[in-house]
UniProtKB/TrEMBL annotation:
Top-level lineage group: Bacteria
Renumbered residue ranges of the record's region Disordered: 1-237
Basic and acidic residues: compositionally biased ranges: 55-71, 142-151, 192-205, 221-237
PANTHER family assigned: OUTER MEMBRANE PROTEIN, OUTER MEMBRANE PROTEIN-RELATED
Transmembrane segments annotated in the record for this chain: none
InterPro entries associated with the record: DUF3300
Compositional bias per record (Low complexity), positions renumbered to this chain: 24-34
Native source organism of the sequence: Escherichia coli
Protein name: DUF3300 domain-containing protein
Polar residues composition-biased segments: 1-16, 73-94, 169-190, 206-220
């Protein structure tokens, strides 16, 4: 006989004898509660996880689309700093390979074309707002300040090497046509601002003229084209 909660206080019902399986299950449950052990991963749970990942990939269209979506997620500041350090510590050949890979990437070209169309279709007020936002960005200000310090601390030989690299880098016909279109579509006020910026930078160029070599006609035309393209980019900003 044993004590129960039934009416009358006593019952003649006798509990069955515990089996080894029930004892093992009870011991396993008590051990899991005491140690807070994680449940064992079975093949069913692995299959369910794989099916969930497949459904997510199907939801985004394909696995490549899902991977591209994950790549488009914003990077953290730590990831940006690590990428910047890797690029700065790379050799000139590695940097050139990265530039060529970026130029031939169809997705990057599509984004550039879309950004160029947005800039061309923007109003002067919108462009001015973008310029002010870029000027007040602390990260871009830090990068500009670091670039300015590197240029000022560079030796005349290093500046000459950089100028030669810039002159040797050819422009394709599409870049020249785009620069020409941006200059032609600029307003008189924008052209005047560009002329003033060029005139302000002329004294510095004259000071650096002692460290430069004489250029031939082909090199001068290449420099003019690069200056026009740079001015068009400034107008976009």
């Amino acid at each position: 006989f044993h004590q129960t909660d039934v009416n009358g206080g006593m019952s003649a019902t006798q509990l069955p004898a515990p089996t080894r399986d029930s004892q093992r299950q009870a011991a396993a449950s008590q051990f899991q509660q005491r140690t807070h052990a994680a449940p064992v991963i079975t093949q069913d749970t692995q299959r369910q996880a794989a099916a969930q990942r497949f459904n997510e990939a199907e939801h985004y269209g394909s696995y490549d689309d899902f991977r591209d979506f994950s790549r488009r997620q914003p990077l953290t500041q730590q990831q940006k700093d690590a990428a910047r350090q890797r690029y700065q510590s790379a050799s000139p050949e590695q940097r050139q390979a990265v530039r060529e890979k970026m130029q031939t990437n169809p997705q990057i070209q599509q984004r550039r074309e879309a950004a160029r169309q947005r800039i061309q279709s923007a109003s002067p007020e919108q462009r001015q707002a973008v310029r002010e936002k870029m000027q007040t960005n602390p990260q871009k200000q830090q990068r500009r300040e670091a670039a300015r310090e590197r240029i000022q601390s560079a030796t005349p030989e290093q500046r000459q090497v950089f100028k030669e690299k810039v002159q040797q880098r050819p422009l394709n016909q599409q870049q020249r046509d785009n620069a020409r279109q941006r200059i032609q579509s600029a307003s008189p006020e924008q052209r005047q601002v560009f002329r003033e910026k060029v005139q302000e930078s002329r004294p510095q160029r004259l000071n650096d003229s002692n460290h430069t070599v004489r250029l031939n006609n082909e090199q001068r035309s290449a420099v003019r084209e690069r200056l026009s393209e740079r001015g068009a980019r400034r107008l976009e900003r």
